[in-house]
Design a protein that fits this description.
Elements: E1 8-10, E2 16-18, E3 26-32, H1 41-52, E4 57-63, H2 75-86, H3 105-113, E5 129-132, E6 138-142, H4 152-158
Parallel strand pairs: 3-4
Antiparallel strand pairs: 1-2, 3-5, 5-6
Active site: 36
Keywords: Oxidoreductase, Peroxidase
GO molecular function, one term: peroxidase activity
Length: 159
């Protein structure tokens, strides 16, 4: 049976991050976009990162252009936008698809493990968030409308 630890993420700086290296940490994995109504969530996500990174919580953003073409830039453009506008310091991947035939396998796994409303599998929009416990079990899936600070209770229960 696959595990979240079977996947490796290519970060936007070209580095490869094997998720197996994060065993024992709580993961928050989410798709992002720079031109979305939910883009200001970067601020709250960065606050979560700053508050909990020393408590074994790792946030990883995955830019995606599948929803309203709201992430049209290159990986370098996205990194610059996140740094200049939101001072994002948590890891960000290269741009990926989260649905369809070219979806990142990590997201296929996450969607299988944590279904959406009414059991739906597909990701509906930017800033869908998955929380994975320290043992690699996908524990929660949060809608794009869920604000980052609303994840705090879930994180505290898993730390």
């Amino acid at each position: 049976m696959p595990s979240v630890y079977d996947f490796t993420v290519t970060l936007n700086n070209g580095e490869r991050l094997p998720l197996a290296s994060l065993k024992g940490k709580v993961l928050v994995i989410f798709n992002t976009a720079s031109r979305c109504g939910f883009t200001p969530q970067y601020e709250g996500l960065e606050k979560l990162w700053q508050q909990y990174k020393d408590k074994d919580v790792v946030l990883i953003g995955f830019p995606c252009n599948q929803f309203g073409s709201q992430e049209p830039g290159t990986d370098a453009d996205i990194a610059q936008f996140c740094d200049l506008n939101y001072n994002v310091t948590f890891p960000m991947s290269v741009k990926v698809d989260v649905n369809g035939n070219n979806a990142a396998q990590l997201f296929n796994y996450l969607k299988d493990e944590a279904r959406g409303v009414l059991g739906t599998k597909g990701i509906k929009w930017n800033f869908t968030k998955f929380v994975v416990d320290k043992n690699g079990v996908v524990r929660h899936r949060f809608a794009p409308t869920t604000k980052p600070e609303e994840l705090e209770k879930s994180l505290l229960s898993l730390i």
